[in-house]
Structure formats: structure tokens, C-alpha cells
Design goal:
Layout lengths: L7 E3 L2 E2 L11 E2 L1 H11 L8 H9 L5 E8 L1 H10 L16 H10 L5 E3 L13 E8 L4 E2 L6 E3 L7 E7 L15
Parallel strand pairs: 1-9
Antiparallel strand pairs: 2-3, 4-6, 5-8, 6-9, 7-8
């Protein structure tokens, strides 16, 4: 197997205590991400308002987004270079208004990426984080409170980085993405 052409980061565990009780395990993504951006500036997540403007104006602009995902799905996203791990299809369309509304209402229907600093994405904790480049023609607004953008599972992406945030533990059951 060849090594990936993008950073594959593994966070390490940080345990800490205060005088009242032991706090839960954390990882060091808060430290790693700013350091990584110093040498890999192309990983900077696109501002949500810039994504919105491009989508609203029907511009074909590549943006950088991220999402929390489970290990097996991450492998499919990396292998297929698609938003949800399906076979990539350059002819994929942005989700329809109905699909978009269903995703916002119930979640877990379409892959939802965020225009949000990865260190603020608690839903990737104990799972994996993937950073991708995707063209705005494949996106529709997801959860605005999460700076979310949904795409069809077959929408082509370029994986820019992966982050293993499992801290060496088995992933919890269920999907990591909050939406």
C-alpha cells in the first residue's frame, strides 16, 4: 500500500485533572492544527460566508471543508475521493431543496461537511476527521448553526488530510456528525 499524498494525522491523548475530579480524555488537535496550517496552508477551512456567496451566486469555486466520520466511511471517502464514499461522479448534482430539508430535519441522509475550524468540531472526537476540497456546484446549505454544507455521496472531492481522533480507543457506536 502506498502512503497517502496528504497529511494523515494521529492525535495523542491528553489526560488532566483539576482539584475536583478527573476530566475525560482529550486529544491534542488544538495544538496540532495550528502547527499543521503553518506548513500546509491549503488546509485552511473556507469561511462559511464565502461558501454561501459562491453557492448562492452559482459559482464553480473549490472550497475546503471538513467533517467527522467513522473509520470505515473515511476509508471509502479516501479510496473513492467522493463526499460519502460512493463511486465519484463528476456529473453529480447538488442536493435538491427537498433533500436539503430532510437532511436538516433528520440528519444522517447525506454527507454534511462544515465550514468550521476543525478544533471546534466536537462531533469528530473519538472518531475521524476528514478535510476535503470540493467544488461549490455540488453543495447545498445544511445546518446553518453548524456551518454545514451537504453533498450527494458521489460528489467528487479531493481529500486533503485525515485526522485520527480515536486516541487509540475503539470508536463509539453511532455516527459522529451531529446532524
Amino acid at each position: 500500500m502506498t502512503s497517502p499524498q496528504f497529511p494523515a494525522i494521529v492525535t495523542t491523548t491528553v489526560e488532566w485533572e483539576d482539584e475536583k475530579k478527573t476530566k475525560p480524555l482529550e486529544d491534542n488537535l488544538d495544538e496540532l492544527w495550528p502547527q499543521l496550517l503553518q506548513t500546509h496552508s491549503h488546509l485552511k477551512i473556507t469561511n462559511d460566508q464565502d461558501v454561501k456567496a459562491a453557492v448562492d451566486n452559482h459559482q464553480d469555486v473549490d472550497v475546503v471543508l471538513c467533517r467527522g466520520t467513522r473509520g470505515p466511511q473515511l476509508q471509502n471517502i479516501v479510496q473513492q475521493q467522493s463526499a460519502g464514499g460512493a463511486t465519484a461522479d463528476a456529473n453529480a448534482k447538488a442536493p435538491s431543496e427537498d433533500e436539503r430539508k430532510q437532511q436538516i430535519a433528520k440528519g444522517q441522509r447525506l454527507p454534511e461537511y462544515a465550514a468550521k475550524d476543525p478544533t471546534k468540531m466536537s462531533w469528530s472526537w473519538r472518531h475521524h476527521l476528514v478535510v476535503v476540497k470540493i467544488n461549490t456546484r455540488y453543495l447545498a446549505r445544511g445546518s446553518s448553526t453548524e456551518s454545514g454544507w451537504v453533498a450527494q455521496p458521489s460528489a467528487p472531492v479531493t481529500v486533503l488530510a485525515t485526522v485520527d481522533r480515536t486516541v487509540g480507543l475503539p470508536e463509539p457506536q453511532g455516527e459522529p456528525n451531529a446532524s
